[in-house]
Specification:
Blueprint (H helix, E strand, L loop, with lengths): L6 H16 L4 H8 L3 H8 L7 H11 L3 H5 L6
Helix pairs in contact: 2-3
């Protein structure tokens, strides 16, 4: 199934926010764990940026999940 424009970004945004909140982390904590800036984390969670694979890997590593699980909406709450 082909993704519509921005759909991948929206999935990533929802999953990052969901996984961060499930850990009880503020955006500041995810920023610290991933080495990214807090405002950038906020922009990612709002689907404002077309995030590169290196940044996605940093986020997955910080959240201690695989890239596959990061995009797997079936694992959502």
């Amino acid at each position: 199934m082909a993704l519509k424009e921005r759909e991948g970004r929206d999935i990533l945004a929802r999953r990052i926010r969901e996984l961060r909140q499930a850990r009880g982390w503020a955006q500041d904590r995810l920023a610290e764990e991933s080495g990214l800036h807090r405002t950038y984390i906020g922009a990612i969670e709002r689907s404002e940026h077309n995030v590169g694979i290196d940044t996605i890997a940093k986020l997955a590593n910080a959240l201690k999940i695989s890239l596959k699980d990061l995009f797997d909406e079936s694992k959502s709450k």
